Amino acid sequence: MGASISSSDSRPPQGIVAVFGGSGFLGRRIVEHLLSSGVAVRSASRHSQRAGDAEKGQAHASSFTHVEADMRDEAQVARAVAGARAVINAVSLYSEHGDTTFERVHVVAASQLAKAARQAGAERYIHISGIGSDSRSRSKYIRARGQGEEAVGAAFTGATFVRPAVMIGKDDALLSTIARLARTLPAYPLFGHGETRLQPAFVEDVAEAVARLTIGEARIKAGPFEFAGPGVYTYRNLVLEVARLLGVQIRLVPIPFPAWYALAALCEFVPGAPLTRSQVELMQIDNVADAGRPGFDDLGIESHSLDQVIRAILEKS
Ligand SMILES: NC(=O)c1ccc[n+]([C@@H]2O[C@H](COP(=O)([O-])OP(=O)(O)OC[C@H]3O[C@@H](n4cnc5c(N)ncnc54)[C@H](OP(=O)(O)O)[C@@H]3O)[C@@H](O)[C@H]2O)c1
């Protein structure tokens, strides 16, 4: 399986790109990479402009707009994708609340968005999912991600699927949590024995890859793309490496997964849900790219290592 991207024409393509979830951790970087390439962007999310959006609006006054749109609302979606030449879905849902279920957002709304993009005449559609997506998984979250890919593929023929590994970078959920706990706790609580394997990807590399897939003269033979960094770590080794780079001495303490599920169930009631059961579930499953699938190399991107990312974050903090 492979992909070929040709970019003989370096001029930015005409027409706007609509980015759903354009204010999120990955989405806002995708927006920035597109704007830097001279592409006009319409960012869509439920809430009014955040600080970053206001800055982008000033820096790219003629090429950046933000629209308030809920992916579950067909009329708002139709307005948000009107006239777009490409549409990207970077919307997340990590814990279910009431009728906001994984199926509702990652399957039903995702396929409606793809259908609306097709009806609006978009030439390209990029769906962000995750490594390990599997429509037959026993996990409700992983199953919804897999079913979402299938539903989007049916709604938009030729849609491009992007599966990032766990992403790291400034303001991430993984490294910043490890660093905070390593600096403050007398003993570091591991997920189980910390044997789950992870291959973290730098969020800026993933955003650049998505921008290239969106604007390149792409003839993508096959997907999905799986984007993961150059190093594979057990969770235990990842924690030790972060502590080493921070210059912190830590003592690791294995915590059984049932205890984590109980804690996550409580955390889901806390605003901002610092830990969810679907995140704990993901920490039980290896999150490593399938070497047989296209990835960064196919787009000419040299991915950043964990050390490079941590050093870059430390320099900026
Ligand atoms: N973060 C990772 O390490 C990671 C790893 C692998 C895959 N992924 C995938 O990458 C994608 C982006 O993840 P992320 O971590 O960047 O997410 P995030 O930081 O939580 O951002 C989510 C974005 O979606 C918007 N959003 C949420 N619900 C919406 C709705 N109903 N309608 C419209 N917009 C909505 C949010 O803005 P509002 O709240 O204002 O609507 C926000 O802009 C997701 O598919 C995620 O599963 C992430």
UniProtKB/TrEMBL annotation:
InterPro entries xrefs: ComplexI_NDUFA9_subunit, NAD(P)-bd_dom, NAD(P)-bd_dom_sf
Top-rank lineage group of the source organism: Bacteria
Pfam family membership, one: NAD_binding_10
Entry's Gene Ontology molecular function annotations: protein-containing complex binding
Residues of the NAD(P)-binding domain: 21-167
Residues spanning the signal sequence: none
Entry protein name: Epimerase
